[in-house]
Amino acid sequence: MDGETIYALSTARGKSGVAVVRISGENALSVIQKMTHISPKKILPRHAYFTKLYGVQSKELLDNVLLIYFKAPHSFTGEDVVEIHAHGSKAVLSSILENLALIEGFRLAEAGEFSKRAFYNHKMDLTEAEGLADLIDAETYFQQKQALKQLSGNLRVLYSNWRAKLLEILAHLEAYIDFPDENIPNGAVSEILQGVSNLKAEIEGHLRSSRAGERLREGFRVVLTGPVNAGKSSLLNAIIERQAVIVSDVAGTTRDAVDVYLDISGYPVVLTDTAGLRQAQDKIEKQGIEIAKQKINDADLVLAVFDASCDTPDCVLSALSKHKNKTFLVANKADKLSHEQCLELLEANCVVLSAKTKEGLPLLFSKIKNFLEQNISAPENTVITRARYRESLGECVKNLSNFSLNKEIELSAEDIRLAARAIGKITGEIEVGEILDKIFSSFCIGK
Description:
By secondary structure, this protein is of the alpha/beta class. It contains 16 helices and twelve strands.
């Protein structure tokens, strides 16, 4: 950190009743001296002051605002922080930010810099910082729930405990390195081997857990597939209630995969429309079909749509036989069917609906919700939420697998040291600049 005082708009840009400008750094209080008539010496931490805000040089009135001072280290960043709660008009906010830029030693914050300073000042670890980012980005109930758990430190506690155990084992090994003439007692050997084995088993179990945490962040993948002209694109448009994809009677109109994002009973869902499955001659359509097949392989749930007015479920079952455990049969165009035909399809375990009239859509939503609850339920326990955690934990397990006391003790100690380092990269206890830059650059400017 460069020691400069930083500032930024911490609320979303655009017209609003109130907006917050945050200032952090050792000179944060100077804004009160330069832009108000209040003496900084009279400012009490965590008290709100209603005051007039003036230009640094012009001394003209900018706005009537609320000021709140958070004294270090009892602030979000761990530094002195001043918040200006102003009216959220473009003109007001522009004038405040322009005047802050005139104060010596002040500069506009970079993306995620407030959170990065909180990390460096030990107000949060990297998992909590990423939990905060997820909370800001949360669009559904379960995303919010998971982010709050991570922000509260559940992952930090788990990973830090594992690392602490590894460092304890490493300390024992290094003690024997310092006294090479002494053999490791049999009791100590058993204790070390058992400790490494137990940790490896715990971490492997954590890695084997479902990817529900990552799916909650990114969205559960639901793919629309089926033969051409089954009405997949019409169904997608009906679900999202707008024209997201082109609908045509011409077979092969959909050439590429189209994603839309939904909130289904608190679950984030990425719904993908794909090219119709058939033997195509057109080169571009062939590519679209290959993309569709890949999307089906990667999907959490497949909606196999067929035109029930002229086809049977068999037209999609053969192509999706290896995905039957994650496939719903969707009989579309129910508006063209008789009551008896609809009953037969329901008895065949099909979701019967009409993209045209939207009849049957509530049943489809209900079945999707039930599937997610039963198969990829929202995690109650501590789960992996990011690919980088999984990668580092895999690296840790690899080093623990290499560990043995049948080789030189220095090499055994190095296996444990590398395993501890891999976990430390997750929480930030081992600082890797490239990781930090990647994490905090994804934050918004005011966070």
